[in-house]
Structures are given as C-alpha cells and as structure tokens.
Amino acid sequence: MWLKTKSEKGRKMNNYGSKEICASAIRIALTSDRQQEKKVQSEFLKDGIHTAAVDYGGEFISSVMKMIERAVVSAKREGVITESHAAEGAIAGATREALSQIMPKAIGLNVGGKIGIARCGDHISVAIYFGIGLLHLNEVAIGLGHRVL
Fold first, then answer.
1. End-to-end Cα separation, the chain, in angstroms
2. What is the pLDDT of residue 15?
3. How far apart are CA 126 and CA 27, in angstroms?
4. CA 128 to CA 113: how far, in whole Å?
5. Average pLDDT by stretches of 10, the chain with 149 residues
6. Looking at residue 14, what is its pLDDT?
7. What is the pTM of this model?
8. C-alpha distances in angstroms, 9 versus 12, 13, 48, 100, 134?
C-alpha cells in the first residue's frame, strides 16, 4: 500500500519510495497507445506522481544516444523534471542503466517499444519496454533504472 502524507501548500503530495515509483514507470511504459497513456498519467498525477513516455524503435547500438536524448526531452516536456543539470543527468543516468540491462539481448538487433519515466519527490525512475529482434520474431525485455534527485 502506498503511504500518503499531508499536502504542502494545498498540493497533494505523497510519500512514495523507489519501489512505487519504479512500478509507476513500468506501468506507463506498458501502455499500448496515447489515449491509455494519457489516462494513466492523469491517474498518477492525482497521487502526485509525474510521468512521461516516449515511443522508440530502431537499431539498438546506433540508437542508444537518441533514446537517452528522447527520455530527457520527454521528461522536460511533460514537467517531470526542470531544466537543470542535475535533473537531466538523473534521467540520462537512469535511462543508461535501463538500457544496459537490455543490451545483452539487443546488440545487433532492432528494438521497438516505449520508454516510461516517473517521478515523485526525490525518486526518479526510467523503465524501458522493448520488443527485440527481427520482423515478428521478437524477444521482450524490460530494463529499469532509478536515481534520487
């Protein structure tokens, strides 16, 4: 069960830990379309969890930097982070960690799926949900990274 604390300045704030924020990032990465993504985002926002998601597909090795860049841009665009060096670095680091968990299966192959980002308070998590392979012969993988900001 997720614990709730009193609001600060009339805004609902919850005291979630890394486990809950990581689960939120996975849940937003698993959404199947934009409509479902926006619905899940609004549910999380009611609990004080800010989320963002970005679709991605392409050859894995040549796309690593582009995936990290898209995660940072998406997090800023959706208001998950502010434009600060520390916040951008936290997203980039968590994304890199998540990608490193997928890397052994993905080297030399194409990937496609979604990057999900969640933040509440100090906790930031990035989940990457990808199909990996050629044509319709895909392996499925989830990578997860967490940082404290």
1. 23
2. 73
3. 11
4. 8
5. 39 72 96 94 94 94 94 95 93 96 92 95 95 84 95
6. 64
7. 0.86
8. 8, 10, 13, 39, 51
- Total residues belonging to the chain: 149
Domain spans, the chain: 18-148
Query: What fold, for 18-148?
Result: Hut operon positive regulatory protein HutP (3.40.1510)
DSSP line for the chain:
---B---BTTB--B---HHHHHHHHHHHHT--SHHHHHHHHHHHHHTT-EEEEEEEEEEHHHHHHHHHHHHHHHHHHTTSS-S-HHHHHHHHHHHHHHHHHHHHHHTTSEEEEEEEEEEETTEEEEEEEEEEEETTEEEEEEEEEEEE-
What type of residue sits at position 108?
A: G
